[in-house]
Known about the structure:
Elements (H helix, E strand, L loop, with lengths): L5 E4 L17 H14 L3 E4 L1 E2 L5 E2 L2 H14 L3 E4 L9 H5 L8 E5 L3 E3 L2 E3 L3 H13 L3 E6 L3 H11 L8 E6 L9 H10 L5 E6 L3 H12 L2 E4 L6 E3 L2 E2 L3 H14 L7 H7 L5
Parallel strand pairs: 1-2, 1-12, 2-5, 5-6, 6-9, 9-10, 10-11, 11-12
Antiparallel strand pairs: 3-4, 7-8, 13-14
Helix pairs in contact: 1-2, 1-8
The site of (5S)-5-amino-3-OXO-hexanoic acid has 12 residues, from strand 6.
Amino acid sequence: MDKLIITAALIGAEVTRAHNPNLPLSPFEISQEAYECFLQGASIIHLHARDKEGKPTQDHLIFAECEKLIKEKCNLIVQYSTGGAVGTFLKERIAPLRNNPEMATLSCGSVNFQDEVFENSWGIMSNIAIELKKRKIKPELEIFEIGMVNNALRLLKEGLIEEPLHFNFVMGIPGGIPASVKNLLFLIDSIPHNSTYTVSAMGRYQLYLTTMAVILGGHVRLGFEDNIYYTKGVLAKSSAQLIERTVRIAKELGREIANPDEARNILKIKQ
Ligand code: KMH
Ligand code: ZN
């Protein structure tokens, strides 16, 4: 098994301080928390940004500020979100890519997102893929539903993405694939065998499904974007606290933790 790659998803676009007062918002707070996650064993930071009012933004200058502050402290892989918040237009979603990050997300289809629709038509998907390819940015293929694997394979067939593919199974959003072990096994079985995958799961499923990924040889995403609780009814102090627990579990299970350069090798990120 490869060493375990841990992605820290600290912010997202939906969580607020009303949900968890420990949510980092400013570039400085984000960089501090990213560094804490790095110290615990994270090798990737999945980056969303907020404006001065704490609202989601795809402003490339704010992304650049976050990345600069993170890179001053450590060599984490900075993975930009191109999903942004539900309803963000394509132009804004790809705006931060002008900073040429090492990695960025590519959502592979539309999905109901609670009461709204997270829209990723073929036009949106292929345009993001073209932008990533042009800039040699490694895509992480976001899979919220099983049919999205087919869209990813179409992107591959049309030459818009390259093997080896890296997937992120985002399980348990209200409207997407339920977070169950059976569904995780089905997803793993549906992707090309030379692919790598990360598991993200919502709320209490984060601990269970990411632990399954540790056992099965996959990789994991942890943090407030997907889960704000440490245990039932108890808010987590930080995303780093969630990472610290998974590192402990992984070590007990004999799975070593990848540092950022090892993660770059595993994911075949061209530097
Ligand atoms: N906030 C979600 C609507 C991504 O980062 O690329 C989309 C999302 C996916 O979080
Ligand atoms: Zn995200």
